[in-house]
Amino acid sequence: MLHTQLYVIRRENRLKQKDVAKRIGIHPQSYYLKESGKREFTLSEAIKLAEIFDCTLDELFGKEN
């Protein structure tokens, strides 16, 4: 699952879902649904996530090798 990488990076940075949700400006429940792959992040949300975790969009959402 592609969203697994986002979960791993978030946990490595010791952040909770609600903290990341607040930083990108969405409700924690919405963040949960998006991180679990049930909904998609908007481009602006994805860019904010990459900035928070200091990585590229490919590192967060890129195809698995």
Question: How does this model look, in words?
Answer:
The chain has 65 residues and is mainly alpha-helical. The chain has helices spanning 4-12, 17-24, 28-35, 43-53, 57-61. The radius of gyration is 11 Å and the shape is globular. It has 5 helices and no strands.
What's the helix and strand layout?
Blueprint: H1 4-12, H2 17-24, H3 28-35, H4 43-53, H5 57-61
Helix pairs in contact: 2-3
Mean pLDDT: 90
**How much beta, percentage-wise?**
under 5%
Number of helices: 5
The largest pleated sheet is described as: none
Unreliable residue stretches: none
Our Rg estimate from Cα atoms comes to 11 Å
Percent of residues in helices comes to 55-70%
Please report the distance between the alpha carbons of the first and last residues.
12 Å
Task: List key phrases describing it.
65 residues, mainly alpha, 5 helices, 63% helix
In short:
By secondary structure, this protein is mainly alpha-helical. It contains five helices and no strands.
